User: What shape does this take?
Amino acid sequence: MTPVDIDDIPRQNPCAQCGTPIPFPDWIEPGEGRVSYLWTCHACNYRFEAVAIFPHEAIKHPPLAA
Assistant: This one.
């Protein structure tokens, strides 16, 4: 699993229910070729997940051991 770079964390994502900007996700789960984010809106208490899926070429793979 690849760690998430702090500069790559989305901020101010609009709530999927009411549109209020959410400062940062509650949970981040990186996976193979994707990152899942759990968001909670404190204005309307709506919770939702957003998933970023990356093309295979964008995934950084560790170097192979010799």
